[in-house]
């Protein structure tokens, strides 16, 4: 997960810092009814870049300044989607995270805790790069 976190950190460093868009679909916290629907829709958008890193599908949604992470098959929290939006307000960097995990509660809770830790690492790194 360390290499994965560094790759996400690098990817987020190039994402535009902006206020997050409000999703028009309010079927879940991520704006989609299912993880599969989110993955399919995001992959179809030619403006998004899609890559697979250590089994995870990572989608850079630059239009919305968001990085999406989809758990791989075989992961305890599969299927899961985590949407992280980076924005700056009053000189501070923030990470807004929304997730939809359709696995059992325990692996989903563990996944969220892992992403919270990654978010804090990214936020601190980006804040340092911004000079704050």
TrEMBL record:
The keyword Signal applies. Keywords: Signal. Residues 1-17 form the signal peptide. It comes from the Bacteria. This is Molecular chaperone DnaJ.
